[in-house]
């Protein structure tokens, strides 16, 4: 059920579970059905949709106003038929009919529908809003003894391995970082080789370190120095940072810690949030004396780097018409905290935006709307669709920055719902500024240029990921690669198209304009209709997803984690009404990519000048970390099968490997203390399509459901 709920997407998820629901106004299900459904839900679904049904990342909320707004009027009979046809995506009908119905009963209960005497059945054919209001009764996912049980009185926030939401505890371990040195703008522009001050290390998002103590010759001697067990609960994809030998680490459950990088000793801890299932966000940053991060419910927070004390807390966007989310943290440039936004599928007047805030106070300074409204630049690219029903354009991956040009570069996600026919649009409507690179002036937030990589994107193959900035051959370049697996090369001064490379097998784009790079879909994709399955490679797992690339300077190449899988997608109708909308609006079924020999994971190195593939390595397990490379000639990356490896950056040969406690997941870093180089990487669980699509096509790969931790390695000390 875990695969089922997450992989069919928000629309399918919501409809699937909710519609089975509405039956009779008296309630439409029995208490026994809901109790059985609760057990199935906690065992099969809660790790993605969370014990409180609030959803996380790709996993949509299954309780509340958004759920009812999206699916309240649809037929329960239609829903059950759709569930059995499409879920799990590669094994339709894998659960018994009774299990599907019982989970639906539990979701009905969680949305305020009272239990009755008449059982929910496969033939029930009523609207969900006939029995459910979206008003969640007290602790629906925390019933007696369940996995989501509420903590006992006095239990510390975040304790109990991801149990229900708890009261924030603030500073739980007091301490102080000694001899702290504030981080200046100059330090961010030219970071010390021993530091790692932001996600992907530097403003250019290079994921490259000039440290060279660990080399291709001695990496075989790398040893584990210490392990720090992290909090369990929500998704764990953190990007730790290091300054002057101190590691700042974000944990699931809204826990921020400072650790001694040499010994692993805890210096201070702040349990800053109330969501015990909150994700360990991708990326925190440091500026002056502050650690700054974003929360999964789209708050920006600043903490005193010396003590962990909370300094300010800013809510992003207007919450009167619905919530937002995000999964990656901010970029700080010239005293401005620049942050993207997620959870923008709801039909509402306020659109998704990228925004900047004063690092001292958290006050908003500017914002740029990523959805073009009627009457504004790009507004005519949505056809006649009213502004109210234009949605999507999330910027859920941290951007990059060129201090010389004073431009920050961000990618945007697709329009919502995924397929134009579900959006009420034509495949010819480009839908700006979705699936684009945006170059924004850091001082004002004004658009300098944009390049749309996937006009009218229709298969959830968005191009939202890292923008890597490279200076080569007297050119200022920008590279990015998206879910379609296409590596794009642009002039970052102007946005001019300079070339592209298909890094994995793709069959959705029939052609590319040789001058502009504009792609054209296959004819059958252009002719999409409701309920008709369309095949496409890569799948929504993405040829490339959030695990970031590295620009390996010595070899002038990009080393990119890639994935190989395909899918079929079927558009579904989505009602257009204020407060409605959803992230998906389509069914999905996944299968192996032709020519992959069952190898989902691919690591490829591509020449910056020619885009030639220098080397490639494939394996069964997908890669679940970013790649980092070093001046020592190495590239490090981890995977779902618990392997953490060092590759020869020039040849792709494996030089060292170790197997860790669970999936190696997040953003590795390297740093130095007292002249000694360290390599650190996290393990964890949770995390959407890159993790769960392979689970449907490579079910032989097993990772423990717990094991969140930080591992730190170094060479043996010289005697």
Write a brief structural summary.
The chain is α+β, with helices and mostly antiparallel strands. It has a five-stranded antiparallel β-sheet with strand order 1-7-6-5-4, with no helix packed on it.
Low-confidence stretches: 1-24, 139-167
Number of helices: 12
Largest sheet features: 5 strands, antiparallel
How far apart are the first and last residues' alpha carbons, in Å? 54 Å
Structural class designation? alpha+beta
Q: What amount of the residues lies in strands? A: 25-35%
Instruction: Going across the biggest sheet, name each strand in turn.
Output: 1-7-6-5-4
Rg (CA only): 24 Å
Number of strands: 41
Description:
The protein is an alpha+beta fold and 719 residues long. The strands form eleven sheets. The chain has a five-stranded antiparallel beta sheet, with no helix packed on it. A hairpin with a 2-residue loop joins β4 and β5. α2 crosses α6, α2 (9-19) crosses α7 (97-110) and α3 packs across α7 (97-110).
Q: What topology does this entry show?
A:
Layout lengths: L1 H6 L1 H11 L11 H14 L1 H4 L15 H7 L4 H11 L10 H14 L48 H4 L7 E4 L11 H5 L18 E2 L13 E7 L11 E3 L2 E6 L3 E6 L5 E6 L12 E4 L2 E5 L4 E6 L5 E6 L15 E3 L2 E4 L13 E6 L5 E6 L21 E2 L7 E3 L4 E5 L3 E2 L3 H4 L12 E6 L5 E6 L15 E5 L2 E7 L4 E6 L5 E6 L6 E4 L6 E3 L1 H4 L6 E4 L13 E3 L4 E7 L1 E7 L14 E7 L8 E7 L5 E7 L8 E3 L3 E5 L4 E6 L5 E6 L9 E5 L2 E8 L5 H9 L11 E6 L5
Parallel strand pairs: 2-35
Antiparallel strand pairs: 1-7, 3-41, 4-5, 5-6, 6-7, 8-9, 9-10, 10-11, 12-13, 13-14, 14-15, 16-19, 17-18, 18-20, 20-21, 22-23, 23-24, 24-25, 26-27, 28-31, 29-30, 30-33, 31-32, 33-34, 35-36, 36-37, 37-38, 39-40, 40-41
């Amino acid at each position: 059920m875990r695969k089922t709920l997450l992989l069919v997407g928000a629309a399918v998820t919501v409809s699937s579970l909710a519609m089975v629901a509405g039956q009779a106004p008296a309630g439409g299900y029995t208490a026994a059905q809901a109790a059985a459904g609760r057990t199935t839900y906690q065992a099969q679904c809660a790790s993605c949709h969370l014990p409180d049904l609030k959803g996380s990342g790709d996993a949509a909320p299954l309780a509340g106003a958004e759920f009812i707004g999206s699916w309240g009027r649809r037929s329960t009979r239609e829903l059950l038929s759709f569930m059995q046809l499409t879920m799990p995506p590669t094994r339709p009908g894998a659960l018994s009919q009774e299990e599907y119905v019982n989970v639906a009963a539990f979701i009905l209960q969680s949305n305020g529908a009272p239990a009755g005497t008449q059982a929910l059945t496969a033939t029930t054919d009523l609207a969900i809003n006939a029995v459910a209001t979206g008003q969640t009764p007290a602790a629906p996912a925390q019933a007696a003894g369940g996995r989501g049980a509420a903590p006992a009185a006095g239990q510390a926030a975040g304790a109990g391995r991801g149990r229900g939401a708890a009261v924030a505890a603030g500073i739980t371990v007091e301490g102080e970082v000694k001899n702290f040195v504030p981080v200046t703008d100059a330090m961010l522009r030219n970071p010390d080789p021993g530091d790692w001050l932001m996600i992907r290390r530097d403003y250019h998002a290079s994921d490259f370190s000039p440290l060279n103590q660990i080399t291709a010759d001695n990496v075989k001697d790398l040893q584990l120095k210490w392990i720090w067990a992290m909090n369990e609960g929500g998704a764990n994809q953190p990007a730790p940072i290091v300054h002057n030998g101190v590691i700042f680490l974000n944990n699931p459950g809204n826990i921020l810690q400072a650790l001694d990088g040499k010994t692993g000793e805890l210096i201070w801890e702040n349990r800053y949030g109330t969501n015990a299932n909150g994700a360990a966000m991708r990326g925190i940053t440091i500026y002056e004396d502050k650690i700054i991060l974003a929360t999964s419910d789209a708050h920006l927070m600043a903490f005193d780097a010396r003590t962990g004390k909370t300094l300010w807390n800013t809510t992003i966007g207007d919450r009167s018409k619905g919530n937002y989310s995000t999964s990656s943290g901010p970029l700080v440039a010239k005293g401005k905290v620049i942050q993207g936004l997620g959870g923008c599928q709801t039909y509402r007047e306020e659109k998704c935006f990228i925004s900047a805030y004063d690092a001292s106070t958290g006050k908003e300074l500017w914002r740029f709307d990523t959805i073009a409204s009627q009457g504004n630049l790009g507004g005519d690219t949505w056809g006649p669709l009213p502004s109210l029903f234009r949605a999507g354009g999330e910027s859920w991956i941290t951007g990059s920055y060129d201090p010389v040009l004073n431009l920050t570069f961000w990618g945007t996600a697709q329009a919502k719902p995924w397929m134009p026919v579900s959006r009420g649009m034509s495949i010819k409507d480009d839908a700006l500024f979705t699936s684009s690179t945006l170059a924004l002036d850091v001082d004002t937030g004004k658009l300098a240029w944009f390049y749309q990589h996937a006009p009218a994107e229709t298969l959830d193959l968005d191009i939202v990921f890292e923008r890597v900035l490279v200076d080569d051959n007297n050119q200022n370049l920008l590279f990015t690669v998206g879910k379609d697996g296409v590596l794009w090369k642009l002039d970052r001064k102007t946005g001019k198209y300079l070339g592209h490379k298909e890094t994995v097998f793709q069959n959705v784009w029939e052609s590319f304009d040789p001058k502009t790079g504009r792609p054209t879909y296959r004819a059958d994709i252009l002719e999409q209709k409701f309920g008709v399955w369309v095949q496409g490679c890569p799948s929504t797992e993405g040829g490339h997803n959030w695990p970031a690339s590295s620009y390996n300077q010595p070899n002038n190449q990009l080393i990119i984690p890639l994935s190989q899988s395909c899918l079929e997608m079927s558009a579904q109708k989505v009602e257009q009404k204020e407060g409605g909308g959803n992230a998906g609006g389509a069914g999905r079924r996944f299968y192996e990519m032709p020519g992959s020999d069952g190898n989902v994971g691919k690591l490829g190195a591509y020449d910056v000048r020619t885009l030639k593939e220098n080397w490639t390595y494939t394996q069964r397990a997908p890669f679940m970390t970013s790649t980092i490379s070093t001046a020592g000639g190495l590239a490090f990356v981890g995977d779902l099968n618990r392997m953490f490896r060092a590759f020869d950056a020039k040849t792709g040969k494996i030089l060292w490997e170790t197997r860790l406690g669970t999936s190696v997941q997040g953003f590795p870093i390297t740093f130095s203390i007292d002249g000694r180089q360290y390599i650190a990487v996290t393990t964890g669980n949770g995390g959407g399509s890159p993790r769960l699509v392979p689970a449907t096509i490579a079910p032989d790969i097993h990772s423990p459901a717990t094991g969140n931790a930080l591992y730190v390695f170094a060479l043996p000390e010289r005697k």
